């Protein structure tokens, strides 16, 4: 778990924000609090936060709309909604849209801290997988269209001579393309390349 990853609390109730910031500090977590969705968006970067606590109902932009805006970023940390009793159906709908959980007010202190700690651990794991996927996608972006063609054939198990025949190019040209593909993708063999793409879930 990254100790630099903070918790964001967005609630228009000053008392709730202050109580949560203090509560998380007692478990050695740093939290930033915002009185409105707009205030968070003005200061938001996905890299800073490992968990977001969003009040469902707030003046101006509500928590659900804020969640939709946050999901527009390439990476969305775990989101937990704070709800009043009447907001539970809305929170359940948010779960279907990708939120992690919701907590009804008034909440149990230990329960909410335990939940957020699970979110922080999940964020650390999910963020690591996402970062690897982005790195591999970036490497794929350095391939030329012809290199992408050759790579697809390599991944089907075609030999250099077969690839040369398929693309009507020389064996030497295929060998050059193969070497460049492996270099750009930072692997040594076609088997490593296949394992890299399969393990990351990136489309080749």
From TrEMBL:
<protein>
    <submittedName>
        <fullName>Response regulator transcription factor</fullName>
    </submittedName>
</protein>
<dbReference type="GO" id="GO:0006355">
    <property type="term" value="P:regulation of DNA-templated transcription"/>
</dbReference>
<keyword id="KW-0804">Transcription</keyword>
<dbReference type="Pfam" id="PF00196">
    <property type="entry name" value="GerE"/>
</dbReference>
<dbReference type="GO" id="GO:0000160">
    <property type="term" value="P:phosphorelay signal transduction system"/>
</dbReference>
<dbReference type="GO" id="GO:0003677">
    <property type="term" value="F:DNA binding"/>
</dbReference>
<keyword id="KW-0902">Two-component regulatory system</keyword>
<feature type="domain" description="HTH luxR-type">
    <location>
        <begin position="136"/>
        <end position="201"/>
    </location>
</feature>
<keyword id="KW-0238">DNA-binding</keyword>
<dbReference type="InterPro" id="IPR011006">
    <property type="entry name" value="CheY-like_superfamily"/>
</dbReference>
<dbReference type="InterPro" id="IPR036388">
    <property type="entry name" value="WH-like_DNA-bd_sf"/>
</dbReference>
<feature type="domain" description="Response regulatory">
    <location>
        <begin position="6"/>
        <end position="120"/>
    </location>
</feature>
<keyword id="KW-0805">Transcription regulation</keyword>
<feature type="modified residue" description="4-aspartylphosphate">
    <location>
        <position position="55"/>
    </location>
</feature>
<dbReference type="InterPro" id="IPR016032">
    <property type="entry name" value="Sig_transdc_resp-reg_C-effctor"/>
</dbReference>
<dbReference type="Pfam" id="PF00072">
    <property type="entry name" value="Response_reg"/>
</dbReference>
<dbReference type="InterPro" id="IPR001789">
    <property type="entry name" value="Sig_transdc_resp-reg_receiver"/>
</dbReference>
<keyword id="KW-0597">Phosphoprotein</keyword>
<dbReference type="InterPro" id="IPR000792">
    <property type="entry name" value="Tscrpt_reg_LuxR_C"/>
</dbReference>
